[in-house]
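REQUEST
  id: r-88c1
  op: predict_structure
  target: Transposase Helix-turn-helix domain-containing protein
  payload:
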Amino acid sequence: MGAGPTPKLVFVDRLLVPLIHLRHGLPHAVLAEFLSVDRSPVSAAIRQVRPLLAARGTVPA
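RESPONSE
  id: r-88c1
  status: 200
  body:
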């Protein structure tokens, strides 16, 4: 703990962003505007969580 940059999104948001993106098809920019962050943390959250969901068979890889 304490190493690296502070995350821009809290843990819950990092889990919900990919689910909202996959369920409703909202673009990364819209989600970023909704959460008042840049687009990059939203894209990173989607990039990190989607493989976990795919491994569980929830979404296509």
